[in-house]
């Protein structure tokens, strides 16, 4: 298949995403207001609690088996590498552009976390259903592609709501604390001048000792178990465990259980399974998630049309990191993994591993920016430009990936 044919195959799915996104943007306009600030949360909740879990569980249960897990173990590692490499590139970008402290966590989040669920769930089936797709039979390609994309979505959710959540929370807290310290510096120094020295030290040390176990604060020897428990407790306090174990993640666990345990699989999966109606109903319900995700994506981008104080250099840097450096590095990592036998010869699986490096930032970054009140308008502007340019970059990278794998 020629390069031009591959370009057409790659362009059609991205255009579909772009068109549905534009519809969502149109529906969110104030004059239309079908996906405005009132309706959007309801649709978001339907996707979060119903459509996505149904899609993830049905796709994983139908395609993942105990034997196939041996070839899928590299995907969580690959996704983790996208987060780590993106964070390193973001740190370099922050130093070059001298990004303001209150936006540094946002920059790291946008560079490290890609849209590992929504876009793959839309793009992969569309590529498979093209008549001249390089991945073989459309039914088999779509089935396995959706399973790979669902696994990517589940693993990505765990990383986003642990790794990125903690980073953005730390930067937001530090920025808020620095602002507070500047505003109360004069009154704080005046108060300290009135306090005796013993009371000053007790005030400064209270927060430190409050976080430590009693034995550590008393200077006694701490056992390994006590220190481990304290570290786990501190990690849990800084992690949004409710989002880590989101409905889609729990649904992925159920999908794995159903798919990998043979007796359960025979009862639910297959044309002759007694409870096949459960799987078919979940699959039917899950199909609604794909267009709804694209509509929500478009409605969320509306905020990015408003002005923001973020510098052009920061936006350009994030776009270059996500659309140029990460995809190039990803090619080296996936090809090396295949060379050393860490990844099998399945071209569709390698294609998805490569795509994970070329995706625009995850929409969950915007949720975190709203949650921490750090760079909300700036995040909308970044998302707008990243997704507009991703329409072109994803087409080019998808074309190149298919040519490379072919």
TrEMBL record:
Q: What is its main location?
A: endoplasmic reticulum
Query: Can the keyword Nucleus be found in this entry's annotation?
Result: no
Give the GO terms filed under biological process for this record: auxin-activated signaling pathway; endoplasmic reticulum to cytosol auxin transport
Which Pfam families is this protein grouped with? Mem_trans (PF03547)
- PANTHER family, sorted: PROTEIN PIN-LIKES 1-LIKE, PTHR31651
The major lineage groups are: Eukaryota, Viridiplantae, Streptophyta, Embryophyta, Tracheophyta
Keywords, sorted A to Z: Auxin signaling pathway, Endoplasmic reticulum, Membrane, Transmembrane, Transmembrane helix, Transport
Please report the name of this protein according to its UniProt entry.
Auxin efflux carrier family protein
Record's function text: Involved in cellular auxin homeostasis by regulating auxin metabolism. Regulates intracellular auxin accumulation at the endoplasmic reticulum and thus auxin availability for nuclear auxin signaling.
Record the organism.
Populus trichocarpa
């Amino acid at each position: 298949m020629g390069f031009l044919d591959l370009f057409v195959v790659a362009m059609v799915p991205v255009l579909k995403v772009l068109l549905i996104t534009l519809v969502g943007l149109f529906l969110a306009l104030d004059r239309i207001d079908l996906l405005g600030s009132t309706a959007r949360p309801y649709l978001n909740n339907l996707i979060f609690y119903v459509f996505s879990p149904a899609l993830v569980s049905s796709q994983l249960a139908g395609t993942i088996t105990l034997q196939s897990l041996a070839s899928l173990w590299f995907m969580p590692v690959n996704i983790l590498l996208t987060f780590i490499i993106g964070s390193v590139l973001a740190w370099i970008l922050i130093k070059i552009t001298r990004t303001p402290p209150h936006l540094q966590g946002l920059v790291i989040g946008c560079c490290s976390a890609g849209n590992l669920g929504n876009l793959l769930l839309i793009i992969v089936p569309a590529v498979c259903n093209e008549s001249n797709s390089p991945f073989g039979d459309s039914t088999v390609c779509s089935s396995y592609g959706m399973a790979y994309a669902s696994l990517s979505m589940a693993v990505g959710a765990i990383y986003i709501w642990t790794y990125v959540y903690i980073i953005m929370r730390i930067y937001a807290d530090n920025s808020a604390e620095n602002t507070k310290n500047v505003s109360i510096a004069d009154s704080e120094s005046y108060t300290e001048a009135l306090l005796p020295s013993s009371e000053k030290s007790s005030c400064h040390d209270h927060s430190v000792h409050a976080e430590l176990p009693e034995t550590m604060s008393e200077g006694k020897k701490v056992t390994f178990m006590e220190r481990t428990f304290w570290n786990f407790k501190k990690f849990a306090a800084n992690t949004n465990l409710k989002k880590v174990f989101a409905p889609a993640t729990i649904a992925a666990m159920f999908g794995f259980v159903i798919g990998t345990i043979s007796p359960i699989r025979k009862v639910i999966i297959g044309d002759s399974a007694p409870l096949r109606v459960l799987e078919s109903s979940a699959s039917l319900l899950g199909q609604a998630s794909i267009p709804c995700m694209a509509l929500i994506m478009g409605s969320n981008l509306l905020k990015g049309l408003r002005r923001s104080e973020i510098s052009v250099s920061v936006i350009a840097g994030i776009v270059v990191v996500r659309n140029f450096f990460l995809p190039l590095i990803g090619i080296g990592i996936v090809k090396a993994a295949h060379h050393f036998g860490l990844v099998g010869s399945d071209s569709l699986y390698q294609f998805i591993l490569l795509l994970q490096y070329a995706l625009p930032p995850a929409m969950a970054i915007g949720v975190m920016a709203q949650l921490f009140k750090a760079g909300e308008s700036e995040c909308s502007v970044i998302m707008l430009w990243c997704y507009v340019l991703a329409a072109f970059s994803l087409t080019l990278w998808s074309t190149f990936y298919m040519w490379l794998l072919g």
